[in-house]
Design goal:
single chain; about 450 residues; alpha/beta; Rossmann fold; 2 domains; seven-stranded parallel sheet; 20 helices; about 45% helix; about 15% strand; disordered C terminus
Length: about 450
């Protein structure tokens, strides 16, 4: 194992210099994206480290995630940690407006959300001066060198949770062993999704005694919420028609899905496809493709009903995926027919669905390996494969029921590990023995970051 390098390297100093120079340009790009998503100006400035909320009194535990999947995966853990640490308050930071909206809907007790600071000197300083967290838990692959190093300098206990690393990322860090060793030395604990990531972290400089191989945190999340009124209404509109779902599809995948649906309609003329795009803002692009291929369709955001003629229902909303999964036990998960890495199979499995995936599920490799081997998921490569997989379960209710049970069993085997993760975090970050931080009411009440 490379030796632990505890001093900043020339490459780290170079990174800090470059980020200071490019920070104004990065801010312009970020601000435009937030403006396009109609994020209020005050909240946009959170990316510069200007807090829009006061710091709560007492001990503050900070979780930092990238976007939707990573953010939602820690909500159950925060809830459980809050029960175990009744004096603790929580901050969760994530970078996308979509994640912010979904977190707001499912916020655990004593938790607040902010956008994270850009990884530049002034933004990081403002953020840390205001929030002063006692512990920081970074999720998956959120490695921001300056934010991590400056947090560690201030005595903030750090962990990397649900860690995963792509092969490309590992190879990149291996080219700079002293710098990778220096960055990783700032963490007291690494909890990885699998043994492969654990080995990769050690190979690029993480201390062996700080690395623990665990499970994918997304398998431990609570089931997605279901709106019973919407569920009842959509079921009424669908009536007794057969249905299948494609969820979290990306550009270039809908063509495969619609080709498969065209093939399936030959056998089930009244079959309905419920299409949930990963990014709802692509609705116009998807609608044009559906029209071009000759399907009749309805759009959720346009409040268009599902008629007997509707062949495709585009669920172009946020926060309703749990309701859609409750409608149908057959789910194809996108992000897998292209080299995207796949998406969380635990959500449909928890809802009682059998799962179909393309081959590009490398972000969930061990999870899908288990699901496929147990019979809870099928892997497809072409649109014809996809139509055959859906037809297999549509045409054989007994086989579908077996697949549903197998998927549910895979989820259940993971559930007991949440307490183990919590134990590891509390021990490594000294969360149970350390007293609450002393924060003056007058210092933080009603104030934003400087």
């Amino acid at each position: 194992m490379p030796g632990q390098h505890s001093q900043p390297t020339l490459l780290y100093h170079l990174y800090c210099g470059v980020t200071s120079i490019v920070a104004p340009f990065a801010w312009r790009v970020v601000r435009k994206k937030l403006e396009a998503a109609k994020v209020p100006a005050e909240r946009q400035r959170e990316r510069l480290g200007h807090a829009s909320l006061p710091r709560p009194n007492g001990r503050l535990i900070w979780f930092h995630a990238a976007s939707v999947g990573e953010s939602l995966s820690v909500l159950s853990l925060i809830t459980k940690m809050g029960e175990r640490l009744p004096d603790a308050e929580f901050l969760i930071t994530s970078g996308t407006p979509t994640s912010a909206l979904l977190i707001e809907k499912r916020m655990p007790p004593r938790t607040r959300h902010q956008y994270p600071p850009l990884d530049s000197a002034d933004s990081v300083r403002r953020f840390l001066n205001h929030w002063r967290p006692d512990a920081g838990i970074f999720v998956e692959s959120e490695i921001w060198p300056r934010l991590i190093v400056e947090s560690s300098k201030r005595g903030i206990a750090l962990a990397l949770l649900n860690a995963r690393m792509s092969k490309k990322s590992v190879n990149g860090w291996k080219k700079h062993p002293q710098t990778s060793s220096f960055i990783l030395a700032q963490f007291r604990l690494f909890l990885t999704q699998n043994s492969n990531t654990a080995a990769n972290l050690i190979s690029i400089g993480a201390a062996t005694d700080r690395v623990q191989s665990g499970t994918n945190l997304k398998s431990l999340s609570d089931p997605l919420p279901v709106d019973q009124a919407s569920l009842t209404d959509i079921r009424r509109q669908i009536s007794d028609r057969p249905v299948w779902i494609t969820s979290s599809t990306h550009a270039g995948e809908e063509e495969y899905v619609l080709d498969a649906h065209k093939e399936l309609l030959k056998r089930w003329p009244d079959l309905l496809l419920l299409l949930i795009p990963r990014h709802p803002e692509r609705r116009d692009e998807i609608s044009e493709l559906i029209r071009k291929l000759g399907f009749s369709y309805s759009l959720r955001t346009a409040k268009e009903a599902i008629s007997t003629d509707t062949q495709v229902y585009v669920a172009d909303t946020l926060g309703e995926t749990g309701t859609w999964y409750a409608l149908c036990p057959i789910v194809f998960l996108g992000g897998s027919l292209k080299e995207i890495g796949g998406h969380n199979p635990f959500e449909p499995a928890q809802a009682g669905a059998a799962i179909i995936t393309g081959p590009g599920f490398f972000n969930f490799a061990e999870t899908f390996a288990s699901l496929i081997s147990f019979g809870g998921a099928l892997e497809v490569k072409t649109s014809l494969d996809l139509s055959h997989a859906v037809a297999k379960w549509l045409g054989d209710p007994s086989a579908l029921a077996d697949a549903q049970a197998a998927a549910q069993s895979c989820v259940n085997t993971q559930k007991s590990q949440l307490n183990s993760i919590l134990d590891s975090l509390c021990k490594a970050l000294n969360l149970e023995s350390s007293g609450p931080a002393v924060v003056s009411n007058s210092e933080f009440s009603g104030k934003r970051g400087d």
